[in-house]
Design goal:
- The protein is mostly helical.
- The chain has helices spanning 2-140, 144-176, 178-193, 195-202, 211-218, 223-232, 252-268, 273-302, 309-317, 328-346, 350-359, 374-384, 389-396, 409-421, 428-445, 473-490, and strands at residues 203-207, 235-237, 244-248, 322-323, 326-327, 450-456, 461-467, 498-504.
- The chain has 4 domains: 18-119; 177-302, 2-Layer Sandwich (Ribosomal Protein S8, Chain: A, domain 1), CATH 3.30.1370.10; 322-426, Hypothetical protein af1432, CATH 1.10.3210.10; 428-512, 2-Layer Sandwich (GMP Synthetase, Chain A, domain 3).
- It is 72% helix and 7% strand.
Length: 512
């Protein structure tokens, strides 16, 4: 019984479950159908919207295409109109050209007709001219050639007359300027006579033992003398003077270098261009050392200490420099002693006065700024090498070319005047001579490519040595002309000056 109840309960449960499942499936199917129906409606709506959008886009593109096509059609019509207009213009121009060609053809015919008439007229003129010439020859009794010769002779006579009148006018003008020309000639003559005085101060005699030594110094075809002149800038004068050779140069330092070099070459016996250059370089170095030693000894003798080494060198160079025929170093020592004595009498410092007096002419031996007056240049050098301001002013004002602000400046001025004004102290001619020759050398050295320049023959010749790498043969020829023109325009000199430009090529190789 109990089992029966259990089975009935199980059967009831199974039945209930089955009914539930059936009901659930029916409900799910209804919902799915509703969802599907809803989705179909939404899809239909989307489809309609897309179709509408596509139609709108198509209409828009269609309108744009129609507008573009209309624009292109308008452009084509405009171009077609332009082409038709251009065609009309070309046809019109062609018609004009055809008319012009027709006019030219007609004018050409007229020109040919005129040319024929002109040729006929010229033939007639030639015939008439020949006839007239023949009648004139019959009337005059001479041919045309004879008449031409007569005309030429008459013109020659007239030209001679005019030339003679011109000569007479020139002579009259020369007579009017005779006094002026005579003065110029006399002045030139006086200047030329100053050469002998210059020679006494610009020539050094070098003694030799015999003519054999003289021949070795000259060398084959004079090559040794040319090498020595090129190396030292001194003119070597070999004449009939027995046992002597003359060394001519306005610069005493160059003459001393040449003299010492010749002395060493003669003692050594080896005299050739390479040896000459070696000895000249060695002697130049020795002379520089001697100049420095001379400057040091002078400073010690004068009791002057603390000078810059460059100033000491300038003092040493004074030994080989003359001022108006007076040795510059002796003159400076004399001025220094005079200044010291006057300073002592006035109660001033004699050491400062002596220092200023010794340095007052250093501008004359410096190569810097040759255009400046030597007093101004000396003051600049003293200031450059840290000398005291009163000394710099005394050096610069000893010719009153700058204002005197130092009490020692009048002492140097008076001392210089006393030393130079004493009888026999100076000669003006030699100083102007040296200045002129130095000016010639500086003028030549101002040109690019010039390595050395030497004034020789008492200023009658200027030798200019140029670098072969910097100056060509054509430029060397022009350089001599340019220098000659500048000397003629800018300088005053007696007689003539010969300018010789030397261009030397050297090839050097070293074997190891």
């Amino acid at each position: 019984m109990f089992l029966y109840y259990i089975l009935a309960a199980v059967a009831g449960a199974v039945l209930a479950l089955a009914i539930y499942i059936l009901v659930s499936r029916a409900a799910s199917k209804g919902r799915a159908d509703a969802i599907i129906e809803k989705a179909n409606l939404e899809a239909e709506n989307v489809k309609q919207q897309k179709i509408l959008q596509a139609k709108e886009k198509f209409l828009q593109l269609k309108s744009e295409h129609e507008a573009y096509v209309g624009k292109k059609n308008n452009e084509l019509r405009d171009r077609e109109n332009n082409i038709k207009s251009r065609e009309g213009q070309l046809k019109q121009q062609q018609g004009d050209l055809e008319r012009r060609q027709h006019d030219l053809d007609s004018q050409k015919g007229q020109v040919n007709a005129l040319k024929n008439k002109l040729d006929a007229k010229m033939e007639e003129c030639e015939r008439i001219t020949a006839q007239v010439n023949k009648e004139l020859e019959n009337i005059a009794g001479m041919t045309a050639e004879e008449a031409r010769k007569m005309l030429v002779e008459n013109m020659k006579a007239e030209a001679r007359s005019e030339a003679q009148a011109y000569i007479n006018d020139t002579m009259d003008e020369a007579r009017l300027n005779a006094a002026k020309e005579a003065k110029r000639i006399v002045i030139n003559t006086i200047q030329r006579t100053a050469t002998e005085t210059a020679i006494e101060n610009a020539v050094t005699t070098f003694p030799i033992e015999n003519d054999e030594v003289k021949g070795r110094i000259i060398g084959r075809e004079g090559r040794n003398i040319r090498a020595l002149e090129a190396a030292t800038g001194v003119e070597i004068v070999v004449d009939d003077t027995p046992d002597a050779i003359l060394l001519s140069a306005f610069d005493p330092v160059r003459r001393e270098v040449a003299r010492l070099s010749l002395h060493q070459l003669v003692i050594d016996g080896r005299i050739h261009p390479a040896r000459i250059e070696e000895v000249v370089a060695k002697v130049s170095k020795q002379l520089e050392d001697e100049i420095l030693e001379t400057g040091k000894r002078t400073c010690i003798d004068m009791g002057i200490h603390g000078l810059n080494l460059e100033l000491v060198k300038l003092i040493g160079r004074m030994k080989y420099r003359s001022s108006y025929g007076q040795n510059l170093l002796q003159h400076s020592r004399e001025v220094a002693n005079i200044c010291a004595i006057m300073a002592s009498e006035l109660g001033l410092n004699p050491k400062v006065a002596r220092r200023a007096g010794l340095l007052h002419d250093i501008g004359k031996v410096s190569d810097q700024d040759p255009e400046l007056p030597h007093a101004i240049l000396g003051a600049k050098l003293a200031e450059q090498y840290k000398e005291r301001p009163e000394i710099c002013n005394a050096v610069g004002a000893h010719h009153e070319e700058m204002e005197m602000t130092s009490i020692y400046a009048p002492l140097v001025l008076v001392g210089d005047a006393i030393s130079g004004a004493r009888p026999g102290a100076r000669r003006e001619v030699i100083e102007s001579y040296i200045k002129r020759l130095k000016g010639m050398e500086d003028l030549a050295a101002s040109y690019p490519g010039v390595t050395k320049s030497y004034a020789i023959q008492a200023g009658r010749e200027l030798r200019v040595i140029v670098g072969a790498e910097e100056v060509s043969d054509e430029q060397a020829a022009r350089l001599s002309t340019d220098i000659a023109q500048r000397i003629q325009d800018e300088m005053t000199y007696p007689g003539q000056v010969k300018i010789t430009v030397i261009r030397e090529t050297r090839s050097v190789a070293i074997a190891k």
